[in-house]
């Protein structure tokens, strides 16, 4: 066979194989999954338009609520279906359909995949992690909507997918779902914590119960709490009229002072006082997501964004996701929320001097700085009475108050507990706390061996017989230039 004959034979064989493939393709029944999608859309698979919107994983429950609201409005009673087949969790919906059409994979309609998501401190709901539903556009055209939850290989994100016969139908449906997602935002009015979890990538946002703390349980020097309320609560109460008169609403509050003096306690009071506000608390390593937290606060205004122990942020040489120092990220986030946004930034610190230069160089982020000092004599007496509520107390508090200059609220709380424990050891019935019980408890806590305990309670480290609580700043004197420890803990928001 010469070269020309060989070429002719090759062309003939190629044509034969092509015709055979087309014959086989034409004879093969359309897979059920493709038939369900294209039958509803009224077009061939290669004409289907695919539009995808991606959200952070912690928005999954909101996306589900938005899709549910869309279906209720445009196709009540529509039923979801899932996809069964190997590797479905690794493929996009449109890729699965394309692979199925080419005969590369076997996918079939199957059960919907669900996951559990929180909708409150003690409530959960089911969200679809992989499923499709046949529905209609706002003007009545056919579309298919899909939901995907977070997958390990995709990272902490979720998606809404719209398949349609044309682009306007797909984008119009997507836009309406996104609008309804914002309208039905489950986070609005809640208390949320931004804290990163390495266990599950989408566990960035956690619901917390809202504190309910009466003003008479906030022991501060006269006028301090009233000044805070006037600035923070007052602006919220007159937000509409302030806007009408061209005044900005965004405000920044810095609470500073020694550990254990009541900064967190004061914040708890504000959160309970402003019940109409969404609260976002950023703690620990989640500070690197402060930009997202600020964006959420802006979206859900009126809102309060709480950042505890920001002196640790100033000392942290770590970088955020964009490569900027964390303190700069915090200041940029405060800038990024527009002046007309009803958002309050509440910062707490044990070491204001660490932040003073940065805040002074970029003025306007904090418009009220309030010192929360160690309690004076009247404050110590008030704290003793507060923590003695519900007890049978037959003791003169004067000597205890006189001996505890420089002590903090945390110290008095522990003092009363030890006194009650001492009384319980002596009585079987309801204990009566006397001078003897309080005296022994105080003597125990003033023992040299308890110096570390006093320090951890924020009541001084360096002690002497006449100055058991040091020099009044919490660590025996003014803060040293070396990195100090911010000891207030996030769980303090929810201690009784």
TrEMBL record:
Keyword terms of this UniProt record: ATP-binding, Nucleotide-binding
Annotated signal sequence range: none
Location of the region described as Disordered in the Swiss-Prot/TrEMBL record: 458-488
GO terms assigned for molecular function: ATP binding; ATP hydrolysis activity
SUPFAM superfamilies tied to this protein: P-loop containing nucleoside triphosphate hydrolases (SSF52540)
InterPro entries: 26S_Proteasome_ATPase, AAA+_ATPase, ATPase_AAA_core, P-loop_NTPase
AAA+ ATPase domain residues: 249-376
Family: Belongs to the AAA ATPase family.
Protein name as catalogued: AAA+ ATPase domain-containing protein
